[in-house]
Amino acid sequence: TQEPKKEEETEVEPRTGLKVPRQVLGQPLVGTSARSVTFLGFLTYAFALYRDGSKWSLKDVEAIIPGLIEDPSGTTLRITTYRDIDCTHFCSSINAGAVPRMKKTLESSLQLEANKAAEQAEAVGNEFRAIFKSNDLPANTAVDFAISRPNPKSNETRVTVYVNGIQEGHVDGSLFTNALVAMYFGADPRSKEIQSGIQSYLNKAKQINSTNQLNLSAQLAHKDKDSHIKVIFPAPHFACGFTTVFNSLDWLSIV
Hints:
Radius of gyration: 20 Å
Structural class: alpha+beta
Shape: globular
């Protein structure tokens, strides 16, 4: 199954120089960031967050990430590789963040014994790994994690994986969804730079949007009755480039 056609408009993630579309699966771009590893700060991928337009607004940027954690449906996380990445390493890195979080959830919410919880969490991790058929992800490969709620009457979610716009498979259940989101936006993320980068992007976008609105208001206030002002509304997103960098000291993790 092929991903629905995306908007042609793109934006450049400033640290990697990689282009990301301003809309994916009908969801507008919320913000961009980048991931680096080791104390040398080797870049591994650009990160882009998309979310249904009805679920967020630049008027309240501080509420966007908490809202995402509370209800992750209608969201897409996009990873665009900056360099060639071994697929096994990529999946292992995702699972290294997701599996312990799933295990903890199973122990706390279902009161499962540690061994049983670990077994179930590993099974979900293996299900995710089986989605990827290729042995590697070349540079500039786009991997989308699209989060949906297949049954509107249920709170259970699904993560559908696309690689370069082609649907590869999915993992059902909020267990994996919540672990994936928490890896990036939870209270204890694997790397703080993604979350801080997105928040910096949003703060800058809000500032630019407010300035443009003030300028527009000033133009309209001084508009002569015989003049004709062509009002050009600003694009909803801006390449900010003011992300806060937290370089990871973990040599093995790329996610």
